[in-house]
Amino acid sequence: MGDRPKSDFVAHLLAMPSRNELILRSGTWSVWSASMFSENIGESLTNVEAILIQVVGTRQEVPCKHCEERRGPFAHCVRIPEANNHWGNCHWGGDRDRCSFNEGPIAPKPTRVRRPKMTDEEYRTHQETVRVLREKKGQLMGLRREQQRDVLDYSSQITTSTTTSDPNQPNPMTSFISSQQRALEMENLTDEMLDDLFALVDKLL
After folding, report:
1. First vs last C-alpha separation in the chain
2. pTM for the structure as a whole
3. For the packed helices 172-204 and 120-160, what is the interaxial angle rounded to 10 degrees?
4. pLDDT band per the 50, 70, 90 thresholds, residue 2
5. pLDDT per residue over 110-154, tens digit each?
6. Which InterPro entries match (predicted)?
């Protein structure tokens, strides 16, 4: 096979004692001849490492999915104990990142998100927030009622009064229009805030 490329990992594997006989999976020779297998070993440093892993690694009683599916050329599922992502069959051909043993356990999907229990201080803050929001909600509702009464009062003045002869007295129509404008401006400014605030209060109460 000629000179083999070197690496720190290869040097580490070569320094380990041999534990296993290199056994190829049945059917391997129906795919490769001896010369083809030798060529595959020499195609990449990864394949050289895979051979050494099989010789010096630890055989697993329960194989990974890769080995169960008869992928890779070796008969047994073998790994290097101190390097969890290095398994012989999975290492061969650069497939080690797809080894099922390298996948973390799948956490069960929670049925609902559980909120952590509040501390005493957090509970007091929560209660105070709710109290303030209740108060603000009442104030804003009162403001709207005042605006409605204001509009009704001026409407009544217009329908029951005639034009005044005293130029120093305010014209009811002018006052009514100004009131309407103020009310509309106030409603435009507060509508969105009210909707957001009420939605928040409803969630907290």
Report:
1. 78
2. 0.44
3. 160
4. very low
5. 444 455 566 777 777 767 766 766 676 677 667 667 766 766 665
6. DUF3716
Residue recorded with tokens 């795919």: 31
What distance in Å separates the CA atoms of residue 62 and residue 87, rounded to the nearest whole number?
A: 13
Burial class from Cβ neighbours inside 10 Å (0-12, 13-18, 19+) for residue 49 reads: buried
Query: What residues have CB less than 8 Å from 73, skipping those under 6 apart?
Result: 24, 25, 28, 32, 37, 40, 89, 92
Q: Record the tokens describing residue 21, joined without a space.
A: 């006989």
Question: Which spans in 76-169 are helix H?
Answer: 88-91, 120-160
Q: Which of 88, 122, 84 is nearest to 103 (CA)?
A: 84
Separation between Cα atoms, residue 96 and residue 53, nearest integer Å: 12
Structure tokens at 101: 């043993």
Q: Please list the alpha-helical segments (H only) found in the chain.
A: 8-14, 28-31, 34-43, 45-56, 65-68, 88-91, 120-160, 172-204
β-bridge mates for residue 59, sequence order: 78
